[in-house]
Sequence to fold (512 residues):
Amino acid sequence: MVALTSTPTPDADNERTLKLRRIALDTHGERVAVLNRRCALFHVERFQALARLEVRCGEQSLIAVLVIADDAALVDPDEVGLSAQCLTQLGASEGDRVAIHPPPRIPSLSAIRRKIGGEVLGEADYRAVVEDIVSGQYSKTELTAFVVACAMDGLERDEVVHLTRAMADAGRQLTWPRPLVVDKHCIGGIPGNRTSMVVVPIVAAHGLLMPKTSSRAITSPAGTADTMECLARVDLTLAEMRAVVETQGACICWGGAMALSPADDILISVERPLSLDAETQMVASIISKKVAAGSTHVLLDIPVGATAKVRSMERARRLAKLFRYVAGQLGLTLEVATTAARHPIGRGVGPALEARDVMQVLRSEEHAPRDLLQKSLELAGRVIEFDPDVPFGQGYALAREILESQRALDVMQGIVQAQGPRPMPELGRLTHEVCAPGAGRLAPLDNFLIARLARAAGAPFVRGAGVDVLVAADDRVTEGQPVLRVHAGTDAELGFAIDMLEAHPDLVTVEA
Fold:
């Protein structure tokens, strides 16, 4: 912690205040305050990296990480530098005078210390921690301590309930004018697998309300929001989202723009660089978002495979049981579909490639990926069977008829127009092909490595980057036949992908 001692300023009217300067830095959501080492207000006696301070402007305040600058060109001694995001959060403008104070004590930090020590926390503990997370009291270092502490030994199932309820209650809670509001979610881990963008228009065409709010990618090459953004705007306001749902019966948008379970997005920003996706936190994340979005019935897809996130049916059953328990405690009806995950689903891995696959399926094109088509119909049928007027086992046939009649395509085109259409990004112009090392049947591709390869090429941040899987598992190939095509936007990113391929020469293998 920084020890700060006050130094009187020459101007009595400005005592204990500094002038704001806008700093053109993207700190990726981290609140940062930049002070000159010769600050006119404070002497930094024992500076330690990532110390915190409070910046106050009138009635508004924020907690920021302290960064020291030795260059007056960045900030003068009588200035404090904030990013544009921080200025907005503070409701201040460049040139305003702000007060600087040592950070207030965070009472909920004691709960995190106890969790690090292995204690089981109560509902009040989790509610206090989540409230302080949302209000910006914690630095990324402290958030990381919380995330890792929860992940190390997991949480008791009632702890998951407490965390989930606190996360759902901390943001907006949407309500809809129908008693049945459906959703479908996949826990991830399978490249491609963009079934939600096929399921939503099928279900909406059937007549069920399906306001789909999705996350961006955490550790994957694309999330549903990243892929949908290749076709339409996803950063809708709440009013815009409601307008789309009222006219189309559904939407496919980014939940982070509407402050639904805002603590989840903050925790994800910590989990992403750690490639951390602990089961208990995953349950809290998913269920809190569904509850906050106003869903009443949810179908959860748990892919199971040797290189998937869940690698055994035993673990899938344990996870499904926890999901059902937490959902039930929060009044949510949840059903689980365990699906096979031997190989990527669809052909494209990366936002634009996956959007291409989705539209091929919705248009019933001859070359649409059959695995994406089949899985989407099965899941859509399960969601349609939430309708009390649909007999058990009849959902698949209804979903297929809706898709083949082009009614689902019409709904998707309506959603795109209502959200604001966008031109499809071009695929990365730089390519590299991986060919079969011999003749025979293609062995299933490692899901985890294919996802890493697509990310190395630039996905999801470069929309047209990723991997095209040209041959399905178990199909016959000839020696030298292209199996994968990597798309990248720059020489450097293509080089990263090629480096990874060289480190994993057995990524593509052939069986006799």
Summary: Residues 107 and 128 are 8 Å apart (CA to CA). The longest strand covers residues 60-69.
